[in-house]
What we know:
By secondary structure, the chain is α/β, with parallel strands linked by helices. The protein contains 16 helices and 13 strands. The strands form two sheets. Strands 3-2-1-4-5-6-7 form a seven-stranded parallel beta sheet, with helices on both faces. It has a six-stranded parallel beta sheet with strand order 10-9-8-11-12-13, sandwiched between helices.
Amino acid sequence: MIGKNDKNILLISSEFPPNVGGIGNHAFNVAKYLSLNGFKVQVLADIIDIHNQTFSKFQSGLSFKLYPVFRQKMVVITYWQRIKKAIQLSQKSDVIICSGKFQLWLILLLKIVATNKKFLAIVHGSELDLKQVWAKKLTDKSLLKFDAIIAVSHFTASLLSKAVKTKNNTTIIHNGINNNEFKNSNNQPLKGTPSIITIGSVTERKGQENVIFALPNLLKKFPQLHYHIVGKPVIQSQLQNLAKNLEVADAVTFHGIVERLTLIDLLAASNVKMMLSNYTADGDFEGFGIGIIEANALAKPAIGSKLGGIPDAINDTVSGRLVDPKNVEEITAALQDIMANYSAYSTQALQWAKQHDWAILIHQYINVIYQTCNV
């Protein structure tokens, strides 16, 4: 730790709990652990469709101050409320951290009204691969104003423009987990030997389709294998039809949306986490793949796609295997390797997860904050 943690931090995020979302979960943990390390933290974040009582209960247990921007039917009102509150809170802040596309754009205004402040951007990936030319230019213009940038993976950092890379100091800090959350799982038997699992919305990006395409070959090597799919059933009917056409429907179970504790129990009962994510035509991809680290925290190895930020989440041949998500032979060989050496992979996955605990990773954020402030 560098110096005394007496800086006032304002974190502006596009998402935040109790809403569900990767950027929100990330922002929550950054705020929580900076606060636990002595910083005075304020958070300004968008909150969507949360009952007042639920939000008040959540807010009362925080170690930092949360200022919500509740989404309005008229979007312009939401924008105005966000801008107005950001200007107010920035006046008493030393460091302003922005996470999320619109939040990055705010710097163009805040730099004018909040002079002598330090600005730090957190980029996750999707905000950098925009298809609209104007939005991409606006993001670049915004990022050039920041004093420092944190990218959640090497892949995300690679999407920064040449101009931004040249001007800004970019640090790669992986997403983290709270290992204690995974210590009391209820490990009930789960169908399949082995049982493989994917957790996340059932979409093209998450790549459940790639696993189903690989099932005929996987079942030749592992006749008792069963694939469990957990998450919002966006394209579930499409994948059910695919499984029927491939004659593997009996080897697939769709669990739908489940509570967090149930999700952890299912993960704990499985053998291998599958994340064969795609880089979609509209620019959607995994910025990191925190679900892989969560599986590792339960001593579950993972098989993940070589695309996007997942290569940062898997220590290949140590905590799991990286594969071409469309290559059935690679996927099959990876599962054979893991199951043949399961004890070693399991132990190594657990150790890998411990390195990604927020209590450890937050010190990398603290270092960046003090380097940015020249302390």
